């Protein structure tokens, strides 16, 4: 039977078929070398002979030492436990990239302040007592020293191995024989117990089988002798069986045994007898609201059609040019409104049940007797690019909120992408990791919400409400003091780094001058030129961007950097002690994995901005932790609801959740002025449009606050995609289905529409790159992301308890591989950015990435939680807001002119979903017609004509019905979405402001880019650091000039002058045309009312010069207009005015 699993062949063959040697692609180094530098200056260099070799028969910690064996430096024994190796990895900074060796620099300290948490990089520990050795003593999960001898002689890992191997197992301290010479047993004796594996199976193999790190030869997707996926063999070796197409553990199976060991396992009958409880519920809009809503849409469509027909057949011969422009604009407005309104026909709400999630995944059951969490791994991505525009304190608070989130600590990992490679960001993250040692246990102990310290300590409500523990006041006071000191340290980092670098550079200059004097006795000395390097806290050069940019040390030219700030936690809970800063007796003090990543950048490579940085994180996390799900957050968006990750996981783990590509959360913002002058909350989009899309194939991806399925990002089709043909004509003209003998389980990882097309072995490196670590992690991530097979109706499920196995520990070769996959050359000749990961080619890479997933048949879900899931900041300054809208609109124009246009969507996308995506690419073009229509009232007043020949009853009735239906639709939208009428009106106002400024500029920029090839520059939106304590909304009143302001200002001034001219002409007219004046003035006031927030923003703070300038400008314009009409009145006018007549 043919198999479509592309990952079945030996990994050694992949390297031979790699396209690394193709013309035009940089050659890949044959081996990765990495070294360590100790305090004494000793370098230890490691290399792996072949990254692409067959690793299934050996462990991943396979090194060769390139210095002569000495008592303090021996070849690592592969049988040594990786726990001690992980301690070294977490204290080392890994750097490398194209044409450079991967080095692991042992960090004596990461920050100036002392670190105490055992997971923290650079944490202090006892030094080895062997003379000449400066390594740290082995330690357990609490940071306590592991002393193998009863005499408590302190010895490091390398010296202990040397004593066992070469010294006969004699303790260097008491000269007695070690009672225990196995380091693995030594670690277990100190409380680091492993979860016992099934009876009759190897514990190490079972751990590796469902490892969260990487798959080996005994991975969960077993291979047959032919190299293909063998489902029967997998079922046999795991004692699984089928129940309506789903695997579950048998009565006498390994993982199905009970605590008492009586062999009472899980049977399908147990699932049948037990009532199945869903994790989520779909809440439909009441019929009393949605039915009138749909009816009004239909009525308005009919009225618009009749109105446009009447307008076209009733021309205005007195001003045919005015009539023609208005007709074109009105037809486009009707088309644009239809595109926006049709996807809103099926809005829905959803709800989650966290209690059911806990019962299914974290409660002791026969398949999970220990009650350990069976939830899948989750990797959180935080992206930042410039510490000047994105304050490190804001990013640090976001990191702290992630580390304190309510998700299994051992399943949670956080990756920080620093695309600027700044030492300031690096040390700020290290400070955040150090402060997390206090903040995270405090949050867990007292159930703190929100878990962003800046937001929590700034709450205006009573912080003691619902707090029952007697020591809460004392703990809160202590933590508040520590946080204040933490903020001072963060704010002082720029000066600290600058002073430190100046001191080290001065020292190097003095040394260079001394050397020059020694070499040249009497010769004239030339000035010594020393590179102005940036220095880290341990006295070594920073490998990233220097304060004074130089070669290999600038924003666009630096090596890749990976630093494990917090090493992976132990698998079992680690409770604190009563003695110390806080009483943490019953509190788990473990912290999630925290990794700093700065991808390599080199001249001549297109790094693709944020999308490229996110793809680098996808690959690095796949190698290091391989969480089945990915949550991406902007650096200024923190977790406001600590249960948000669990709520998103309810959708992914529910029945049918394996077809969900992502769960999008709404964006909520803080620090916005109470009136929301520029519609920064964007509630109409997040609470109306997104809820409506949730009733179709799901909401669009909006760039942050999104929980992804890793497999969906890899470009695979959803499971059972052939059963869900959702084309617009599928009901009338169904496509003929091809028969396939391949089971759906074998086709879980399918990337091609044709079922008979197999992803051959040679195509795997061409799609994903030549990293075998990354390729082997794909089927593991797919399996772990499956829903729980706890009911016959759950398709493509996984057995209960399958993810309770501890993940493998980090070793140096794993981090070295992560350095390789974030190098600048890795994506060459691959499909990263074109089909896999975040999609390149647009400044709004988020929308394009979501569109590609929906286009392959995936669905998404909109998760609105009772307590906001995430909160962030938004630019409240007018100029910043316009530039933000400009970037969004520019991306939409790029989408329209690209292959991502919804007109080219596949049949898998539903018709209404396609219309919604089509509107995303078309809406900026409405600005062309909107600007013309905003000038029409002024042209009407100047010319004395109107868009219709006369304001007859038919025109007014049509206008009245269209207006009334618009208002009623708005009221019903407010009813089912929960927004306020003021928010709806603010959105209407900013629609016109943005349409007459940023949108029109985006159209011209898009036309220039695709017509002349000129690339649009990306402007980073500034994130507020909240430093101005005198006025929280000081940014609101700052007026910064931008060319985007010219069209709205022109529209306002022209309409004001036109009103004055229209009144003057009517007053002096022999036969005043009051009806035409009223029509023109009405529409002019409609334009000015929408532009009122813009005018208010230009005036700045009350009492300042801009207010006077613009008020006097308007008065002068009106005065001049009246004076001109008075001096040159219309011919034949006999008096001031005339008789008032209405049609």
TrEMBL record:
One Pfam family per UniProt: Cellulose_synt
Principal location class: membrane
Biased composition range(s): Polar residues: 10-19
InterPro entries, alphabetized: Cellulose_synth, Nucleotide-diphossugar_trans, Znf_RING/FYVE/PHD
Segments passing through the bilayer: 287-308, 320-339, 916-939, 951-972, 1049-1071, 1077-1095, 1107-1127
Region (Disordered): 1-37
Signal sequence residues: none
Keywords carried by this UniProt record: Cell wall biogenesis/degradation, Glycosyltransferase, Membrane, Transferase, Transmembrane, Transmembrane helix
Record's subcellular location: Endomembrane system
Topology in the lipid bilayer: Multi-pass membrane protein
Domain of life the protein comes from: Eukaryota
Protein name from the UniProt record: Cellulose synthase-like protein D3
């Amino acid at each position: 039977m043919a198999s479509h699993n592309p990952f079945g062949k030996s990994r050694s063959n992949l390297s031979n078929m790699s396209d690394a040697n193709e013309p035009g692609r940089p050659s890949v180094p044959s081996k990765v070398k990495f070294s360590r530098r100790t305090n004494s200056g000793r370098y230890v260099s490691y290399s792996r002979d072949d990254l692409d070799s067959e690793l299934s028969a050996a462990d991943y910690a396979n090194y060769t030492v390139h210095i002569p064996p000495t008592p303090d430096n021996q070849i690592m024994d592969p049988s040594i436990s990786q726990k001690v190796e992980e301690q070294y990895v977490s204290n080392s900074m890994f750097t490398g990239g194209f044409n450079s060796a991967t080095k692991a620099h042992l960090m004596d300290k990461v920050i100036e302040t002392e670190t105490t948490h055992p997971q923290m990089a650079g944490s202090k520990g006892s030094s080895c007592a062997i003379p000449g050795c400066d390594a740290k003593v082995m330690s357990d999960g609490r940071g306590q020293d592991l002393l193998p001898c009863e005499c408590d002689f302190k010895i490091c890992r390398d010296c202990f191995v040397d004593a066992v191997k070469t010294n006969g197992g004699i303790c260097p301290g008491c000269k007695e024989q070690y009672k225990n010479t196995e380091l693995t047993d030594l670690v277990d004796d100190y409380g680091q117990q492993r979860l016992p594996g099934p009876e009759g199976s190897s514990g190490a193999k079972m751990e590796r089988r469902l490892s969260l790190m990487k798959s080996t030869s005994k991975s969960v997707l077993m291979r047959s002798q032919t190299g293909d996926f063998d489902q029967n063999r997998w079922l046999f070796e795991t004692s699984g069986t089928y129940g309506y197409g789903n695997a579950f553990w048998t009565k006498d199976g390994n993982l199905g045994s009970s605590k008492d060991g009586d062999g009472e396992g899980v049977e399908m009958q147990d699932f049948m007898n037990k009532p199945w409880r869903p994790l989520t519920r779909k809440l439909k809009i009441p019929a009393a609201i949605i039915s009138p809503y749909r009816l009004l849409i239909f009525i308005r469509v009919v009225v618009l059609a009749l109105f446009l027909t009447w307008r076209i057949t009733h021309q205005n011969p007195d001003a045919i040019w005015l009539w023609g422009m208005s007709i074109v604009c009105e037809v486009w407005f009707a088309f644009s409104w239809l595109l926006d309104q049709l996807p809103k026909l099926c809005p829905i709400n959803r709800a989650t049940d966290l209690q059911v999630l806990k019962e299914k995944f974290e409660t002791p059951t026969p398949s999970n007797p220990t009650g350990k969490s069976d939830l899948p791994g989750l990797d959180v991505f935080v992206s930042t690019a410039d510490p000047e525009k994105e304050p490190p304190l804001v990013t640090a608070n976001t990191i702290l909120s992630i580390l304190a989130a309510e998700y299994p600590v051992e399943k949670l990992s956080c990756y920080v992408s620093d695309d600027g490679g700044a030492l300031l960001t690096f040390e700020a993250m290290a400070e955040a990791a150090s402060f997390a040692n206090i903040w995270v246990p405090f949050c867990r102990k007292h159930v703190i919400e929100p878990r962003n310290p800046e937001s929590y300590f700034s709450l205006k409500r009573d912080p003691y409400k619902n707090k029952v523990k007697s020591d809460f006041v004392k703990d809160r006071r202590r933590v508040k003091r520590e946080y204040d000191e933490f903020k001072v340290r963060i704010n002082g980092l720029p000066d600290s780094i600058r002073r430190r670098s100046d001191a080290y550079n001065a020292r190097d200059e003095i040394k260079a001058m001394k050397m020059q004097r020694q070499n040249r006795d009497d010769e004239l000395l030339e000035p010594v030129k020393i590179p102005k390097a940036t220095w880290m806290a341990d006295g070594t050069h920073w490998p990233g961007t220097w304060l004074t940019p130089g070669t290999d040390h600038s924003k666009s030219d630096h090596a890749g950097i990976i630093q494990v700030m917090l090493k992976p936690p132990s698998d079992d809970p680690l409770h604190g002690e009563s003695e110390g800063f806080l009483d943490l007796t019953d509190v788990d003090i473990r912290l999630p994995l925290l990794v700093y990543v700065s991808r390599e950048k080199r001249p001549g490579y297109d790094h693709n901005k944020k999308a490229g940085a996110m793809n680098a994180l996808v690959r690095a996390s796949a190698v290091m932790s391989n969480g089945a799900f990915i949550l991406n957050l902007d650096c200024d968006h923190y977790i406001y609801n600590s249960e948000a990750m669990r709520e998103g996981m309810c959708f992914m783990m529910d029945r049918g959740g394996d077809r969900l590509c992502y769960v999008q959360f709404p964006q909520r913002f803080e620090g916005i002025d109470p009136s929301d002058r520029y519609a920064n909350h964007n509630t109409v989009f997040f609470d109306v449009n997104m809820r409506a899309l949730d009733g179709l194939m799901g909401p669009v991806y909006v760039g942050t606050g999104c929980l992804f399925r890793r497999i969906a990002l890899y470009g695979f089709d959803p499971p059972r995609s052939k059963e869900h043909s959702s084309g617009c004509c599928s009901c009338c003209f169904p496509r003929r289905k091809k028969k396939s003998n391949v089971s759906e389980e074998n086709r879980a990882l399918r990337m091609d529409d044709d079922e008979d097309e197999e992803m051959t072995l040679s195509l795997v490196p061409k799609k994903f790159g030549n990293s075998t670590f990354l390729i082997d992690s794909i089927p593991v991530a797919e399996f772990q992301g499956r829903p729980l097979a706890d009911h016959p109706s759950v398709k493509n499920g996984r057995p209960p308890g399958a993810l309770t196995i501890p993940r493998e520990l980090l070793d140096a070769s794993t981090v070295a591989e992560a350095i390789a996959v974030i190098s600048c050359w890795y994506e060459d000749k691959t499909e990263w950015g074109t089909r896999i990961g975040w999609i390149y080619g647009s400044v709004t890479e988020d929308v394009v990435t979501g569109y590609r997933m929906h286009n392959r048949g995936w669905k998404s879900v909109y998760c609105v939680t009772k307590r906001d899931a995430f909160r962030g900041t938004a630019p409240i300054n007018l100029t910043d807001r316009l530039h933000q809208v400009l970037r969004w609109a520019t991306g939409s124009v790029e989408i329209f002119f690209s292959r991502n246009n919804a007109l080219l969507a596949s049949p898998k996308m539903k018709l209404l979903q396609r219309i919604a995506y089509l509107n995303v690419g078309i809406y900026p073009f409405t600005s062309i017609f909107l600007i013309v229509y905003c000038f029409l009232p002024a042209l009407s007043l100047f010319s004395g004509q109107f868009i219709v020949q006369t304001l007859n009853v038919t025109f007014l009735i049509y206008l009245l019905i269209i207006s009334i239906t618009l208002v009623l639709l708005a009221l019903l939208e407010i009813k089912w979405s929960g927004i306020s009428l003021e928010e709806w009106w603010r959105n209407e106002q900013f629609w016109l402001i943005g349409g007459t400024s940023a949108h029109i500029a985006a159209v011209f920029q898009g036309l220039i880019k695709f017509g002349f090839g000129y690339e649009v520059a990306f402007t980073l939106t500034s994130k507020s650091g909240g430093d101005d304590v005198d006025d929280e909304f000081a940014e609101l009143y700052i007026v910064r000039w931008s060319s985007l302001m010219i069209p709205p200002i022109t529209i306002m001034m022209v309409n004001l002058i036109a009103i004055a001219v229209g009144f003057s002409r009517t007053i002096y007219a022999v036969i005043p045309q009051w009806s035409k004046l009223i029509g023109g003035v009405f529409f002019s006031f409609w334009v000015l009312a929408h532009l009122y927030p813009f005018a208010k923003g230009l005036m700045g703070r009350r009492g300042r010069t801009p207010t006077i300038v613009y008020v006097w400008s308007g008065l002068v314009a009106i005065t001049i207009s009246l004076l001109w009409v008075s001096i040159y009145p219309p011919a034949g006018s006999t008096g001031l005015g005339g008789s008032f007549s209405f049609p």
